[in-house]
Specification:
By secondary structure, the protein is mostly helical. The chain has a domain at about 10-55. It is about 65% helix and about 0% strand. One of its GO terms (biological process) is positive regulation of DNA-templated transcription. This is BZIP domain-containing protein. InterPro entries: bZIP, bZIP_plant_GBF1, bZIP_sf. One of its GO terms (molecular function) is protein heterodimerization activity.
Amino acid sequence: MLSTVPAMLPSDSLLHFPAFDGGFTPWDCSELLPAIQSPKPTISTPSSGPVQSTKTVISSSGSDDDPNRSVQPDRMNRTHANAKSCPNDVSNRAVSVVDERKRRRMISNRESARRSRMRKQKHLENLRNQVNRLRVENRELKNRLSYVLYHFQRVRTDNDRLQSEHVLLRQKLSDIRQILVYRQLQHMSSAWPCNTVIPEQTPSLIA
């Protein structure tokens, strides 16, 4: 607290100090209470106005009247708050960067999976088309094979038939030759007059 003393004090108040109860004077009280200081009188001069002497009285608490002490904790608290908020901001930024990377990686993985599915689906479709084409070709080849086998069987049957006919015709030709030889011999024997033997007549073997 600041205590001021008026510029003009009466002379009686400066010379006579009443004694306190118990016989103590203000000087004795000042020795007992050193924390409380007596105000100094102000001296007035003609050239200047009254100069007031002020002196700060320090209270026992020490924190109520000093503004610097109240400002310093606020600054310290603000500094601590800023120091706490800075790591939080950095951590939030790091988390956001990590989340952004995860999101991009997830999108990239989805695109890769989609492209892979499309490639697999296209490859599967190509395989299905190839299988269908091979099935058609296989069916055509089977039909051709059946046709060839059918004709082969017919040719084989015809060959067997022709071979049988060939054997039969050879046998007939052989019989005809024998008949011709016999007739030729018979004709030659009839031309000799001394020959009294009558040849036996053989039936014709030609059908």
